Amino acid sequence: MQESRDAQSVAAEALRPAVLEICAGAGGQAIGLERAGFRHVGLVELDADACETLRANRPSWPVLQCDLREYKGEGVAGPRLDLLAGGVPCPPFSLAGRQLGPADPRDLFPSVLDLAGILRPRAIMIENVKGLLSPKFDAYRSGMAARLRELGYEAGWRLLNACDFGVPQLRPRAVLIALLESLHQWFRWPEASLAHGRVTVGQVLRESMAAGGWEQAAAWAGIADQVGPTVCGGSRKHGGPDLGPSGARNAWARLGINGSSLADQVPRPGDPLPVRLTTAQVALLQGFPEDWTFAGNKTSRYRQIGNAFPPPVAEAVGRSLAPVLLPGLAAAQEMPKGPDPVDRGPSGLWR
Predict the structure, then answer these.
(1) pLDDT tens readout for residues 270-287
(2) Which residues are part of the catalytic machinery?
(3) How many CB atoms lie within 10 A of CB 43?
(4) What backbone phi and psi angles, to 5 degrees, belong to 338?
(5) Each residue of 300-347: pLDDT tens digit?
(6) Right CATH number for 2-195+309-348 from 1.10.3380.30, 3.40.1650.10, 3.40.50.700, 3.40.50.150?
(7) pTM assigned to the model
(8) Is 152 left (phi over 0), alpha (psi -120 to 50) or beta?
(9) Residue 193 half-sphere exposure, CB side, CA atoms within 13 Å?
């Protein structure tokens, strides 16, 4: 009887769509895709602390520490790869940087396309900053689309705001979805989840703000009862354990938060406003589960958290992808066609 149940469990696991994640970071996207029903056949990440974070929270995940530019798909097990997913470095396209695009050595989109050509996944999902969707990079995105068509994919971009999916910060993200030509017609972008209104910073952090006996927690939650600005994780070259440049810190200050540095503990009795956040509190603002732990020193932990793709957003996209990718899914074949599921944007431009 036990052997039968084990066999059924293995069979059920094999039916879940398989994902290889690149630039996996601290696992924000991985958590979301796991919740959406995906099984990870590999997670590629260069940063040692981030790899330790992944292994500590999900010992069963096959984590490979290496440079994506040197990775050629080694270690991916199984007869098929349904999804290649990840969040490549943002600095080449960030509005806060020089926006060097392909001239920036940190641009890893060419490596993503090379890996897609080697592994031939049924779908590709890559997220980045909204700056990538600016007119400055129209030609760059068009070149990516042309290369993906050569590989047999139809692709499109969409700007998704994290606050539309239960995350208490704006955090607009550019998301690329590319699907095999035989599948793209069935895909629909996820819709905003606003049935109960947007989640606010005060709602998410009120309990933790009161955990140390801080008498102003309730009053603070009222001040912070709104969506916060985007958490800025910084890069290896720039950014430390703070909430970003001066503009971002000023926005946080209006919510009663001192964004100049991070605290080692939650507020205690007598602490004045504005208060500082802990890395654990920032993780809650990113949509990480409370029990998700992060390896490394404070700066490393904050960078992992601040650069993550929020799990609720990744889950929403994953739930839109999973029915299209499940093998032999009869329902997918019966889905009615809708208008232009891979949105090319105005005037035929990819966005």
Answers:
(1) 999 999 999 999 999 999
(2) 90
(3) 27
(4) -120, 175
(5) 999 999 999 999 999 999 999 999 998 554 343 343 333 344 444 332
(6) 3.40.50.150
(7) 0.88
(8) left
(9) 14
